[in-house]
Specification:
heterodimer, A: 210 residues, alpha/beta, Rossmann fold, 5-stranded parallel β-sheet, 11 strands, B: 221 residues, mainly alpha, 9 helices, 85% helix, elongated
Chain lengths: 210, 221
């Protein structure tokens, strides 16, 4: 039995279905790339899977439980990082990283957080306010959360946006490691070529017929 | 650290760094209250007569200045996801947000109110009741505001809409709050009005976190 199964799920904007209903299933150690043209609803479907919004139709289940009813188990096993980084510009990098996770009930010690910042290439920026970081650095700060949580499911919306070449390489290796260690990855990405070869399967969203 | 305390602590840190959330309502109050003697052009007696109502209306308007910020900033930068995508109950997180908002914007109004009272020649016997009534009343502003803020957080300029949504809900608070001060200025007991005000506060604490949590979820759809 796969860990995550989606049956004929679709999302709505206004009164229209965004894309043809899709189905997929994922087991530990597998990854899924969601692709399709701009505006097709990649972000919307990821947000729905993450639990930020409801699905218009179809059924999504986690360990055989309907996700529209039981979400606690899902939230304790999944991490979503979207377009909005969730950083507060008046907090420094360490405070941002720690407070975001503490609000989710995850205690992170300062040395751990410092180490994570070092790994994402933000060493020396620990006490710099997030508001003064560049777009790429803000993204790195958000991605540092990946290193501090021990969740098996990662849901990432365009994680490569704003990252430089070395940042992309770093992220690719982190994602690779996660999947190799029996993690599950759901991802959308613009630069499909590199990531396409790495994922277990690809889901292409097509416009719904009116 | 519990998520509740972590959220309160984060918001207090943010508020103390931004500062505008704290001093804006106070400066607004001070500016408006200095206009009253100038506009009315009459003596201390008239001012004392209208003082309870003016102080309460000012507290209401000053609170409205910052209510939209409760959830708007978190929505804009995406940190709202940190307390929505978790198994920790959303109504409790709403409570934490409201508490932090009150500590930053409501409590200063309570502590500042004697100064406004002096400027309006409020009878000296009413200061205790004035502060007590505001202490009970201003948290209700923050609670009611959390619904309005949750409903309007995705709008660019939701301030006016929030005012229209929240103002009618706040009229009972204004009525009971101001009447408590009026009664005490007349030398009567303010107990009845204060008890009704306390009832409203208890109602807010128990029901509004659920309503605001539902509003947040609707807005993320």
């Amino acid at each position: 039995m796969p860990i995550i199964t989606a049956q004929d799920i679709s999302c709505q904007r206004g009164n229209f279905l965004l894309f043809k209903p899709v189905s997929f299933s994922l087991d530990f150690g597998q990854s899924l790339l969601i692709s399709g043209p701009n505006g097709i609803g990649k972000t919307t479907v990821l947000e729905s899977i993450a639990g930020l919004r409801g699905l218009q139709q179809g059924r999504l289940s986690f360990k055989d439980q309907d996700l529209s009813k039981f979400k606690d188990d899902w939230f304790e096993n999944s991490l979503y990082i979207g377009h909005k980084t969730g950083n507060k510009k008046e907090l420094n990098c360490l405070e941002n990283l720690r407070s975001f996770l503490q609000i989710q009930g995850i205690e992170v010690l300062e040395p751990q957080a410092e180490q994570a910042l070092e790994q994402v290439g933000l060493a020396g920026y620990e006490y710099q306010m997030a508001g003064s970081l560049s777009a790429g650095q803000k993204k790195r700060l958000a991605l540092a959360r990946l290193l501090l949580v021990d969740f098996s499911i990662w849901i990432l919306d365009e994680p490569f946006v704003n990252l430089d070449v070395s940042g992309c390489d770093w992220l690719l290796s982190v994602l690779d490691n996660h999947v190799k260690n029996n993690g599950i990855l759901l991802i959308t990405a613009h630069d499909n070529k590199v990531i396409k070869n790495k994922v277990t399967r690809e889901l292409i969203l097509e416009p719904a017929e009116l | 650290m519990k998520p509740f305390l972590a959220l309160v602590k984060r918001d207090l840190t943010l508020g103390l760094r931004r500062k505008s959330q704290i001093y804006q309502p106070l400066v607004f109050q001070l500016l408006v209250v200095t206009m009253f003697p100038l506009g009315l052009g009459s003596g201390a007696k008239t001012l004392a007569l209208i003082a309870p109502a003016v102080i309460w209306i000012l507290a209401l308007l000053a609170s409205l200045l910052t209510l939209d910020q409760i959830f708007k900033n978190d929505y804009d930068d995406g940190s709202v996801e940190s307390y929505v995508l978790t198994s920790y109950p959303l109504p409790l997180s709403v409570m934490a947000k409201v508490m932090a908002h009150w500590l930053l914007s409501g409590l200063p109004l309570v502590l500042f109110s004697p100064i406004i009272g002096v400027l309006l020649h409020l009878p000296s016997s009413s200061y205790g009741i004035l502060m007590l009534s505001l202490l009970i009343g201003t948290p209700i502003f923050s609670f009611m505001g959390s619904i309005g803020s949750a409903l309007t957080m995705s709008l660019k300029h939701g301030g006016l809409l929030l005012t229209i949504l929240v103002m009618p809900l706040l009229t009972p608070v204004l009525i009971f709050g101001a009447s408590a001060v009026v009664e005490s200025a007349l030398g009567n007991s303010a107990a009845q009005a204060l008890l009704l005000l306390s009832g409203l506060l208890i109602l807010s604490i128990t029901l509004i976190p659920f309503a605001a949590a539902a509003a947040i979820k609707i807005n993320l759809e």
